[in-house]
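Researcher: Next sequence.
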Amino acid sequence: MSVVATPSRGISDCKWNRSAGAHNKIHMRAVVTGGGGYCGYKLGCALANIGASVVLCDIHKPMWLIPNGVAWIQTDIRDYNAILAACEGADCVFHVASYGMSGTEQLHKEEIESVNINGTRFILNACKQQNIPRLIYTSSVNVVFGGLPIEDGDEESLQYFPIDKLVDHYSRTKSIAEQMILAANGSPLAGGGILHTCVLRPPGIYGPEEQRHLPRLAKIIERRLLSFKFGDPTVKMNWIHVENFVQAHILAAEALTPEKSYIASGQVYFIHDGEKSNLFEWLTPLFERLGCSKPWIRIPTSFVYASATFMEHLHSILRPFVDLPPLLTRNEVQNISVTHTFRIDKARTQLGYHPLKYDFADSVDHYIKSRPQPSNYYLFLNILLTLIVTLVLFFLSLRLDSLSALHFFKERRHGPA
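Model: Next structure:
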């Protein structure tokens, strides 16, 4: 285990936007798991800016500058002794770390389970052993969404989607981990006192320098692999800007204190920007900045779902030799083609959450200006390889048994058993 509090490569704006919520200076030692990633890093910077001493725990070093008041400890979430040491003396833990959210990672089941379930178990045990009274868990809307429409769902009316009906291991493990966090609320600490926990459920996250969704979407669009669209044009979903994500987490930590009457203790909150949009319309600025036409060809969702099913099977067969990234997974097809929107009234009322308005186009502009430009030769090879793979998948998927498509519609017509 190593501790680093010196600048890293890259530059990122770490200033906390105080207009996103009134926060007085605080004095606490906060541990942020997944602190080497975009959201964890931004949260750590914001906490430091309001007076907290922050430890970022991650197996990878942040790619941005590490500011004063923030230290990075190289920590594997699957190593209990390392977690225990990193949490020593902490007042609050933000458990942001996870694995398997999108792309190829979604298909790495062993890694997903070891990080999302075992890692969460280690965090809970460390909090109890190190007498840490507050734990905020970053969950996902996918614990309640499994491909059936949800319009303005709330925390009280929505039940967990049956785990055996979820099509991806990430959502399954996040559901299990979330329930572990809530079950631990009220647990006694080793030195006396009580553990107070709460859960935040964000949708997809965006913002300047976001490294997961935007770069992947840009590559897919530039390779002309998103020249089609699918799903009903009225389908809506929510997104959350990283600054609103940060605001909600800091407010949740405050709501687990006696000053706030522990109002968030044992509670779950949906958080997002307060808006809903169709994915293909929301991506308009990205198509425009990349100089690509918006998709106008609409193909059946059943075909896309069947193709995603085939690509997942192909990935599992080829993984011992090559980690072939699927264009889309079944979970991603569901997220794009089925409405799932949520109310944030509870977060507004109990936490004082007030999301600020952000424009996705600003994040796109930042990405376009800062991304490295590939050579023409590399770009040509990349496009050629992608085209070949796509054509092979297309023709093979035509031979896929129609049961995948029938299953897709059957699940959505009748719902989970």
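Model: The mean pLDDT is 87. The domain at 3-222+233-279+338-369 is CATH 3.40.50.720 (Rossmann fold).
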